[in-house]
Amino acid sequence: MGRGKLPAGRSGWRSGSADAASGMNYFKMIVLPLRQFAVQGGGIFGKFGNRRGMFPGIEPVRSRNWQVFGLAVGLPLAGYAARVVLGDVLVGYPYATFYPVILMIAVLARPLASVLAVGLSAVLAAPFAVDSNAEFLPQSLSAWIGLSLFLAVSGMIVWLLHALRSALDSATEARAALTLANRHLEERVALRTRELTEANQRLLAETEARVGAEAQARQGQKMEAIGQLSGGVAHDFNNMLAIIMGSLHVAKRRLERGDTDVVQFLDGALEGAGRAAGLTQRLLAFSRKQPLTPEVADMNALVRGLDELLRRSLGETVRLELALGGGLWRTRVDKGQVENALVNLAINARDAMPDGGKLTIETMNAFLDDAYASAHDEVTPGQYVLLAVSDAGVGMTRKVMERAFDPFFTTKDAGKGTGLGLSQVYGFVKQSGGHIKIYSEPGQGTTIKIYLARHYGEGEVRADVVLDAEVPMGRPSVSVLVVEDDDAVREIAVGILRELGYTVEEAASGYAALRMMEAGTRFTLLFTDVVMPGMSGRMLAEAALRVQPDLRVIYTTGYTANAIVHNGMVDPGVELLTKPYSLEQLARKMQRVLQG
Length: 596
Known about the structure:
The protein has helices at 12-40, 42-46, 59-62, 65-85, 98-108, 111-125, 141-256, 263-286, 299-305, 307-314, 335-351, 370-375, 398-403, 421-431, 487-499, 510-518, 537-547, 583-595; strands at 295-297, 318-324, 331-333, 357-368, 382-391, 435-441, 445-453, 479-483, 503-507, 525-529, 552-557, 565-566, 569-570, 576-578. With 596 residues, it is α/β, with parallel strands linked by helices. The strands form four sheets. A five-stranded mixed sheet has the order 2-4-5-7-6. A five-stranded parallel sheet has the order 9-8-10-11-14, sandwiched between helices. Strands 1-3 form a two-stranded antiparallel sheet. Strand 8, helix 15 (487-499) and strand 9 form a beta-alpha-beta unit. The longest helix is centred in the first third of the chain and has 116 residues, at 141-256. The chain is rod-shaped and about 165 Å long. Residues 1-20 and 37-54 have low confidence and may be disordered. One of its GO terms (molecular function) is phosphorelay sensor kinase activity. Residues 168-202 form a coiled coil.
């Protein structure tokens, strides 16, 4: 059998069919697994971040047209040569050596070159598709079928590999684009993070600077307030001391000359001292340090009790109107401080109406809810007794309202106000656990509302002791023991009590006083300082009551925080007379305690 001849009995159909079958087998064995691998493992190729395609090493070949078309011609010729060499082995398989050529060219070349290689391979393989006489018969059906199958399978290989290559190129490009986008995103995130960090650092620095500036501003405001307070105190005290010292010096010189006409100067000294004492009480009230003596009170009764005094103080041009609510709840306050607050507010209202007008004092039950409390500092939601004072005066601007409670702040002309009236009211209300609010508009008048907590506990409203119009005098049968460690203060207290008609003994310490009582001396009343070295006034009173249970006790002190005052409130059942006190104040306190 010659080279290229079919064995006897084999036809062109057989050779074409067998070769087609071998092509299909090749397709199934190599191309399909390659496709499956490419589809399932496409991510493997994507791992080569910067590489293109399924076989990145052939890119330089594919990018040069002369090399591509050289391969398209050279590889089919190589297949032809291999077919010639293996002619006896591959008899009946005319296309066997051309399928690898098609596969290689499909991988290495572009579509146009691959089509050229397929056509050239078909032409070169045609001589091997011969009949039994070694002649290619174009009219032979089997030859045409074999050639058609070769072209079809080759075309499928070329199309599939180029489709796979295109898909993988697209996937690789997409992955590269995604990687690039991620890199850009990371760069932008890093840039934005850096910008935010810098912005936060700037904000932190600005916040620290603002906090520092606010602290400096608050310190400045505090120092300004302290300066205003100290300046006001110094100014007022200097004026009062000038009155006292001047009056006493003139009285002394007259008495040295034998002139007894000194009453007016002594009255001036007393007036100056009284004003000084009142100033200290107002300052203590503003600072919430004054000792309060709270008791169950009926606000309507307190207002009615001040009606006559208020009408005299307001004058004829101001009409006073009371609007007292029915069923008013009870409250627990220091009655004297409520009266002082009402008088201060009424006088301020009178001064705000120089041409006269109506002043209204109103009481009612009120409830402050959570919303109101959250909008106002130091306010506890709950039920309150409301005391409101309204005038039809000139009103206040917002700036004036913001400073209305500042000590020594006043809009009145010089000499017509100390600027402590509203400060005293504010301090008393806050110390009593209440709330105060100003409502005012320029030209529309002012309303000041005081909220005092409702009293839920037991206790009846105690009727006030009716005091004599004149200074009440004592009796020699009432013996008083005065205990004071300051000799000068003790001498004055003893002198006042003897002037009032009481029998008085004195002691410089708690121990000395207790020895007198333990020796059998009985007293009607103990008048003792609270703060003393060794034994305090409270300790002395407790020991003295064990010796004499019916002993009456009055404490006196110049301190605001001591053994008988806690949280600004005088302990229940304690009678206290704060220093400085006048003869009349001591006389009325003695009367109240002895009658009570």
